[in-house]
Amino acid sequence: MAATRGIDRGRVGADAVGRAFADDLSAFVRVQKEAGLDYFSDGLLKWQDIFRPLTEALGVKPHILVRWFDTNTFFREPELSGRLPGATRPDGVVVDSSVPRPRVTTLPSPYMFSRAAHTDQDRNALMLALAENVLRPAIDVAVAAGSEVIHLEDPWLGYSGIAREDWAPLRDALTILHRDLKATLAFHVYFGDAAPHLDQLQQLPVDAIGVDLVLTDVKSLGSGWNKGLIAGVINGRSSILESPKDLVDVARHLADKVRPRDLYLSSNCELGYLPTPVAEQKVQRLGEAARKVKELVSV
Amino acid sequence: MNQVVDHKPLLTHEVGSLDKPGWRVKAYAGKPLDDKDLEEARTWGERLQVPEYERLLDLLRHAPFSKEQKAELQRWSSLYAVRLEESAGLDVVYDGEQQRTEMYDWAVSHANGFERRGSVRAFDNKYYSKAAVVGSISLGSPFHNAEFSYLVSVAEAELKIPVTGAYTIADWSFDERNRTPEKLLQPAAERSRQRKAARRDFVLEVARNLIRPNLEALIKLGARWIQVDEPGASTEADELDLFVDSFNASVEGLNAMFSTHLCFSDYNLFFPAIERMEHCQQFAVGFANYDSRELGTSDEARPGYHVIKKFRDLPYKPALGLGVLDIHSDFIESPELVRDRVLYAVKVFGDANRIHVTPDCGLRTRSWKVAYEKLRNMTAGVRLARQQLGLPAAE
Known about the structure:
Chain A is an alpha/beta fold. Helices cover 42% and strands 16% of the residues of chain A.
């Protein structure tokens, strides 16, 4: 933080910023290892917002600053008017090589990307073009570099919803991303109640659906889930630490009643809204809960 | 009863923060100063004709600094900032938060009931600090009195004091009064209801027990215009009534002119909720960030300003502090661009008296050089608009 502020004001050089990022990444990897997580992330520490490495790969200019849903964070609206170019070097999405495997790469979902962008194009056509020309190349680069889970974030669907006629183009866009993919593709809805969308979500061509369980009633998930389930059980908007016992109770309920093909325990949203010390404690709680659940399953 | 301050049409003012000079930041942090810092202090002292600025240079050469010397350096920084704004030609000035750590942190560090938790990213490489409320909220000590007393003694132009609003303080804080985590197996609707009730209590407690007593202290000292900063106001679309209630609870019955600052939002969301904010005599709102840089006064030329019609139609006829400078960019708006934004607003309002002219937000993210050029062009643009409207030139 101090280093990036310093470089913005011409008070430190790029080397100092690089060293600071490396130190922060190393600390975040250590936290994940100590927590015993199964998949490792680089925490997107270098990303100024979820779109930035992709807009940089596209060579397009970030547009105005826009509030990120109901948070006190802001993103640069991607300027995607006119014909969408191809992403020439989507290397910015590749997880740093110091991060242990297996790795998870987080990207914006094509639906959110197309809705958050500034464009004069039809947004569903843009969604398909983003999937083909931007997200798929980025995913291929990430998988080639060792990512085993591609985690698509979609707070737009959770927060603002989706029109009935937009589901088919979303399925088409996700088909482009899922085709012959040698990694797990997850579509994570958050910042909203997923319950009204669950039937459609389960028809999406992805391997797992993520749900924000702070805002979605656990009972709405029903039973006989036909995919993997990313259960957003850690509240990324609250500094109150979760009780591992409560998390275990939820996980057991999901395993027993919802019965997803695979159950992943996760945060309900990104942890960037929390100061680092709080986020680290939450990661530890998540790992502790997952460990207990695994012990119970093995018994 | 709110005090009515009579202002001329197209009044110009800043909105809040300015960057802190390198010499002030380093000196306060106990870091060594170099020739560049001294040169910065000398150059701006000379350019802004700060009286006796050589005394600052002399002080800066005598590090390390005692607590009293650091306080003196803060006052120098305030003086420089006030002179910068006066030199740029603003009608109403402030010191750009030179004596505050930051708009949120300064308030909660003078409040009882909060504990610091750390920083989170706001955008790009900008971060803000967050605290958690852990107990009963009250005013530790009035936290703008010393600043106000000093500024009154040095400002030649009219003074306006920004105060961070209750809703924003609550929104940017964590609520840890009840440390029991939510039980996710409970019905989501019931958990949501409990969250909303706790949130309402929290926001109104900040308004009544922290903001209002601090405003009372300022008014007692003679503050006439207080700007309640609420950059967080539209964060949650379903809480705009709560934002209005918190504003009213903070200022109702106090004798001063109250305005509020809103920024970087879909301003349509504020309507109709702010129809109940009759104690607010001016809304300072950022628009330039959303606007074109082309010249013109047509609707097509001014896409960032269409929503101002809604402010025009508010029943209690507040003034609009029209944001005409994009504070997220080093782009220097030309006087002609400022002029056209102002003329468009006057055309929509049909009354230049209700238009004040401001940056979109505080200029803290810009260097002083950029901020100064932007502000000078802003006042130059207002002069052009005055000419075109046949208004008397500013004094």
